[in-house]
C-alpha cells in the first residue's frame, strides 16, 4: 500500500457507499419533495422503483442511460479512491444491462488543506478505470469545499427492450451474486488503521473489478432482473428487487460468499455503523436472521457485485455464459411468491 501523509479517510465520517443517506430518510426526502410525475413517455425508467439509473428512449431501438454517483473517501490512497469511485459509478450502467459510453467527473476538494496534486491523482485513478471500461472521461465539475468527494456521472446506451430493472424477477428465479461481501468491513478496518496489507489488496481486487458482465447479460431475456449491491447491503438491494417484482426471496445464509479474511474483523466487532442503520431499515421486512449474520447481509458495499435473477430452466445457460466470460458467481437463493416477510433467511 502506498503511504500518504494525508489520510483521506480521516476527512469524513462515512466512507464510500456507506455515506449514502439512510433508506428511510431518502424515502422521506423524496416523498415530501412533491411527486416525480414522470409523464414523458420516453422516460422509460425514473426513480419510482429505486432502479440504478434513469433510462430515456431516443429512437425505436436506442435508449440512453444516465447515472450519478459520488462519495467521500473509502481509502487513503487518492489514486485508489478515484479508481474505486469510478468503478462504482460505471456499475449502475452495467446493472441496467447497458453499455457505458462516456462520463463526467464530480469533484469536491478542500484545496487549502489537501494538496491539489492529490486531487489530480484521484482523477488519474478515475481515468484509468474509464479506459478499462472503454470510455472517455469527457469533463466534469469541481468545487472547493470542506469534504473531499469524488464520483462520476456516467452515460450509457441500451436497446429499449433489453433494459434490466428491479421489477422483472419471477417466482422460482434463482438468485446469483457476482462478488463476495465484506467491502464495508474492510473499509472500516482501514479507517480504524487495523487492516493488514493482504486484506487491503482483497478490498482493491473486489471493488475494482468491473461489473461489465452486466452489458452481456443485458442481451439475454433469460435474465429477468438485475441490480448492483452497494450502500444498502445485500439485504437492501435484494428487497428492492423483491418489492419491485411483487415477490419475496429466500436466502441461504451458508451460501453467501465472503471476502477472505473478513470474519476475523467481524469477530473483533470491526464493521461500519451503517450496517446497523441498514438493519434498522430492513429488519421488519426480514425473518430468520440469527446473531451476527446481519453483518454479512447488511454490510454496505462500495462497487459491490451484481445481483441477478435467472429462471431455473436457464441455469445451465447462465452458468456456461458466466464461465465462458471468466466471471465468478454464487447462487444464494431464490424468489418465491409474496409472503408476509420480503426476505427469509434459511
Ligand atoms: N436526490 C435525488 N433526487 C431524486 N431521486 C433520487 C435522489 N437520490 C436518489 N434518488 C433515487 O432513489 C433511488 C435509489 O437511489 P440510489 O442512489 O440508492 O441508487 P443507485 O444509484 O443504484 O445507488 P448505487 O450507486 O449505490 O448503486 C434511485 O431511483 C434514485 O434515482
Ligand atoms: Mg446501483
Automatic annotation (TrEMBL):
KW Ribonucleoprotein (keyword) present: no
Residues binding Mg(2+): 52, 92, 228
Span of domain PurM-like N-terminal: 51-158
Active site, renumbered: 17
Site (Important for catalytic activity): 20
Keyword terms, alphabetized: ATP-binding, Kinase, Magnesium, Metal-binding, Nucleotide-binding, Selenium, Transferase
Cofactors named for this entry: Mg(2+)
Cofactor note: Binds 1 Mg(2+) ion per monomer.
Gene3D superfamilies, alphabetized: PurM-like C-terminal domain (3.90.650.10), PurM-like, N-terminal domain (3.30.1330.10)
Reaction catalysis annotation: hydrogenselenide + ATP + H2O = selenophosphate + AMP + phosphate + 2 H(+)
Annotated GO MF terms: ATP binding; magnesium ion binding; selenide, water dikinase activity
Limits of the PurM-like C-terminal domain: 170-344
One of the protein's GO biological processes: selenocysteine biosynthetic process
InterPro entries in UniProt: PurM-like_C_dom (IPR010918), PurM-like_C_sf (IPR036676), PurM-like_N (IPR016188), PurM-like_N_sf (IPR036921), SelD_I (IPR023061), SPS/SelD (IPR004536)
EC number: 2.7.9.3
Class of the enzyme per the UniProt entry, highest EC level: transferase
GO cellular component labels: cytoplasm
Positions of ATP binding: 20, 49-51, 69, 92, 140-142
Family: Belongs to the selenophosphate synthase 1 family. Class I subfamily.
Role summary: Synthesizes selenophosphate from selenide and ATP.
Complex formation: Homodimer.
Protein name: Selenide, water dikinase
Organism: Algoriphagus boseongensis
Lineage of producing organism: Bacteria, Pseudomonadati, Bacteroidota, Cytophagia, Cytophagales
UniProt gene name: selD
Amino acid at each position: 500500500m502506498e503511504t500518504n501523509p494525508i489520510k483521506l479517510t480521516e476527512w469524513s465520517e462515512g466512507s464510500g457507499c456507506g455515506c449514502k443517506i439512510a433508506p428511510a430518510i431518502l424515502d422521506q426526502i423524496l416523498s415530501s419533495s412533491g411527486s416525480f410525475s414522470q409523464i414523458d413517455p420516453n422516460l422509460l425508467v425514473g426513480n419510482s422503483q429505486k432502479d440504478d439509473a434513469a433510462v430515456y428512449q431516443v429512437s425505436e431501438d436506442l435508449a440512453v442511460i444516465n447515472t450519478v454517483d459520488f462519495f467521500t473517501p473509502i481509502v487513503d490512497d487518492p489514486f485508489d479512491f478515484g479508481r474505486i469511485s469510478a468503478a462504482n459509478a460505471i456499475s449502475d450502467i452495467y446493472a441496467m444491462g447497458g453499455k457505458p459510453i462516456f462520463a463526467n467527473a464530480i469533484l469536491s476538494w478542500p484545496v487549502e488543506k489537501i494538496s491539489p496534486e492529490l486531487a489530480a491523482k484521484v482523477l488519474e485513478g478515475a481515468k484509468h478505470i474509464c479506459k478499462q471500461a472503454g470510455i472517455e472521461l469527457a469533463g466534469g465539475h469541481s468545487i472547493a469545499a470542506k469534504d473531499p468527494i469524488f464520483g462520476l456521472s456516467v452515460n450509457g446506451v441500451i436497446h429499449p427492450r433489453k433494459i434490466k430493472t428491479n421489477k422483472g424477477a419471477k417466482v422460482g428465479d434463482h438468485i446469483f451474486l457476482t462478488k463476495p461481501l465484506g467491502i464495508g468491513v474492510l473499509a472500516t478496518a482501514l479507517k480504524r488503521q487495523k487492516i493488514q496489507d493482504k486484506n487491503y489488496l482483497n478490498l482493491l481486487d473486489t471493488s475494482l473489478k468491473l461489473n461489465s458482465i452486466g452489458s452481456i447479460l443485458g442481451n439475454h431475456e433469460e435474465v429477468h432482473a438485475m441490480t448492483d449491491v452497494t450502500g444498502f447491503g445485500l439485504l437492501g438491494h435484494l428487497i428492492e428487487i423483491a418489492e419491485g417484482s411483487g415477490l419475496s426471496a429466500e436466502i441461504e445464509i451458508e451460501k453467501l460468499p465472503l471476502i477472505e479474511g473478513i470474519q476475523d474483523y467481524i469477530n473483533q466487532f470491526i464493521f461500519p455503523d451503517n450496517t446497523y442503520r441498514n438493519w434498522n431499515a430492513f429488519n421488519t421486512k426480514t425473518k430468520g436472521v440469527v446473531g451476527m449474520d446481519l453483518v454479512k447481509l447488511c454490510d454496505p458495499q462500495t462497487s459491490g457485485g451484481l445481483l441477478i435473477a435467472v429462471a431455473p430452466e436457464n441455469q445451465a445457460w447462465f452458468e456456461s455464459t458466466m464461465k465462458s466470460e471468466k466471471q465468478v458467481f454464487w447462487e444464494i437463493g431464490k424468489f418465491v411468491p409474496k409472503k408476509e416477510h420480503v426476505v427469509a433467511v434459511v
